[in-house]
C-alpha cells in the first residue's frame, strides 16, 4: 500500500473535521442578542408633555370661543409626540447580531454598524456623566454622536471612517456614545463574536440582518 496515498486521503478528512467544528461553533452563537438602555430621557419628555397638555386644557377653559380645529391640531401633535418620543423608546432595544451592532432608540433612530466599520468599542468614562446629553445629540465641534437613554454604563464605539447621520441633521460623526443596561455583557459579547467572525463575512456584499 502506498503511504503517500494514505497521507493524501487523510488531508481532506482533517479539513472536513475542521470545517465541521467551525460550523458547530457558529451554530452555538446566538443569532441576535438584545440589550436594554436607560429610560432617564423619558422623564423630561413626560414632564414636557404634561405641561403642554395642561396649557392646552387651561387655554380651552379660559377661551370664550374655543377654536376646536386648532385644539384638535394641537392635540394631534401631542398624541404623535407621546407615541413617537415617549412610548416607542420603551419598545426598542439595542441589538447585536453575529456581524453587526444595531443601535436603536424608539422609532426615530436606527443605525446598523457592521463589525468591519468598527475600529474599537470600549467602556466610556462615566466620571463626567452629568454633562452627557440625553437623547440623540451631535454637539457642534465634537466628533461624537450621543445616543443615550441614561448617563450610566456608557459605551464608546469608534468608527473607522466618519459617517453621516441624518437623525442628527446630516452631520458626520466618527464616534458614537451610547448606554446599555449590561455593559460588561455587551463588551464581552462583541469581543467573542468579532474574534470568531471570518474576515470576509462582515464585508460581503449581500450582508443583511439575517445573521
Across the major sheet, the strand order is: 5-8-9-7-6
Mean pLDDT: 83
Instruction: Report the major sheet.
Output: 5 strands, mixed
Question: Which radius of gyration do the C-alpha atoms yield?
Answer: 25 Å
Description:
With 211 residues, this protein is α+β, with helices and mostly antiparallel strands. It has two domains: 1-30; 33-211, no CATH class. The protein has four helices and nine strands. It has helices at 3-28, 41-62, 68-87, 183-196; strands at 33-35, 94-96, 100-105, 109-114, 118-123, 135-137, 144-148, 154-165, 171-179. The strands form two sheets. The protein has a five-stranded mixed sheet with strand order 5-8-9-7-6, covered by helices on one side. A four-stranded antiparallel sheet has the order 1-2-3-4, with helices on one face. Strand 3 (100-105) and strand 4 form a beta hairpin.
Layout of helices and strands, plus pairs?
Blueprint: H1 3-28, E1 33-35, H2 41-62, H3 68-87, E2 94-96, E3 100-105, E4 109-114, E5 118-123, E6 135-137, E7 144-148, E8 154-165, E9 171-179, H4 183-196
Parallel strand pairs: 7-9
Antiparallel strand pairs: 1-2, 2-3, 3-4, 5-8, 6-7, 8-9
Helix pairs in contact: 2-3
Amino acid at each position: 500500500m502506498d503511504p503517500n496515498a494514505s497521507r493524501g486521503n487523510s488531508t481532506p478528512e482533517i479539513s472536513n473535521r475542521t470545517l465541521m467544528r467551525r460550523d458547530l461553533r457558529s451554530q452555538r452563537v446566538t443569532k441576535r442578542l438584545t440589550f436594554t438602555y436607560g429610560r432617564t430621557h423619558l422623564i423630561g419628555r413626560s414632564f414636557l408633555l404634561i405641561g403642554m397638555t395642561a396649557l392646552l386644557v387651561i387655554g380651552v377653559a379660559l377661551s370664550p370661543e374655543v377654536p376646536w380645529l386648532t385644539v384638535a391640531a394641537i392635540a394631534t401633535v401631542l398624541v404623535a409626540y407621546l407615541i413617537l418620543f415617549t412610548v416607542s423608546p420603551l419598545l426598542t432595544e439595542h441589538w447585536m447580531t453575529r456581524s453587526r451592532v444595531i443601535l436603536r432608540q424608539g422609532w426615530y433612530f436606527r443605525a446598523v454598524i457592521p463589525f468591519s466599520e468598527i475600529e474599537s468599542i470600549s467602556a466610556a468614562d462615566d466620571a463626567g456623566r452629568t454633562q452627557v446629553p440625553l437623547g440623540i445629540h451631535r454637539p457642534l465641534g465634537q466628533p461624537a454622536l450621543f445616543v443615550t437613554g441614561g448617563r450610566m454604563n456608557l459605551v464608546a464605539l469608534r468608527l473607522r471612517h466618519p459617517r453621516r447621520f441624518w437623525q442628527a441633521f446630516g452631520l458626520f460623526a466618527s464616534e458614537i456614545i451610547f448606554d446599555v443596561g449590561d455593559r460588561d455583557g455587551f463588551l464581552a459579547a462583541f469581543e467573542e463574536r468579532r474574534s470568531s467572525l471570518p474576515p470576509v463575512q462582515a464585508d460581503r456584499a449581500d450582508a443583511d440582518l439575517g445573521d
